[in-house]
Amino acid sequence: MELDLTSAAFWIAVGQIILIDIVLSGDNAVVIALACRNLSPEQRRKGILWGVAGAVSLRVVLTVFAALVMNLPWLKLVGGLLLVWIAVKLMLPEDEEGHDIEPSAHLWGAVKTIVVADFVMSLDNVIAVAGAAHGSLALLLFGLAVSIPLIVWSSQLILHWMERFPSIVLFGAGLLGYVAGQMIFTDPGVLGLLPPLPAWSSKAAGVVGAVLVVAVGRWLEQRILARQDVTVV
Question: How far apart are the first and last CA of the chain?
Fold first, then answer.
């Protein structure tokens, strides 16, 4: 996909990248807050600034690399299956133990914690954004340029919205399923095994992926909640 600002398909893809970043970056916002909570107010601002700058730079490099290699045979299939698992996991009740993040009393210790934790936690984000970019480096960079400042400066508001409106998470999981379905269906290795299909087939595969993720996620969520109710009783 080319960088055509007048194309509806371009802006739809940008919207997907922004929404994916918002849905999958809630945990990263929590990590930033936890890592910096023991710093003084002035150092806390610096810690967040430098930590986010380092984490974002590393994520951009990883996402660009993922987008460049995504067209190799079978990689989209593997990435799509992993993304289905990530999307289903997003819908399940959170672990009550929370994040194992040690707050730092020193500025650069907090910065290192943010960068390392973001690197470990960003696999889902990298795969999803690379898939939504459809191999377009220009679209990928444009989408990240729009979404990253949004997340950095409004992370607490985003977390509040996601807690108040659970439908955002449900919609986000469905979007991840849609991207995963398209990734799997457009994998060069998978296409080589299939007969010629109409152009709308990839969109149909995306819809199937979205429905599958929401259905499986809801089913597992109900089972977990029922098990928790039995344990409490």
Answer: 55
Q: What is the pLDDT of residues 130-166, one digit of tens each?
A: 788 776 777 777 777 776 666 666 655 665 676 677 7
- As a whole number of Å, the CA-based R_g of the chain is 19
Q: At what angle do helices 8-24 and 137-164 cross, to 10 degrees?
A: 50
* Residue 94 per-residue DSSP state: P
Find the largest Cα–Cα distance for the chain.
Answer: 63
Is-contact 95 47, C-beta < 8 A? no
- Alpha-carbon distance of 21 to 13, in angstroms, equals 12
Cβ neighbours of 124 (radius 10 Å): 21
Alpha-helix residue ranges (DSSP H) falling in the chain: 8-24, 26-36, 41-69, 75-91, 107-121, 123-132, 137-164, 167-185, 188-193, 201-232
pLDDT in tens, 113-134: 777 766 666 666 777 787 887 7
Residue 106 CB neighbours (<10 A): 12
Say which amino acid occupies 30.
Answer: V
Q: Give residue limits of the domains in the chain.
A: 9-232
Q: Are 52 and 114 in contact (CB under 8 A)?
A: yes
pTM of the model: 0.70
The type of residue at 124 is D
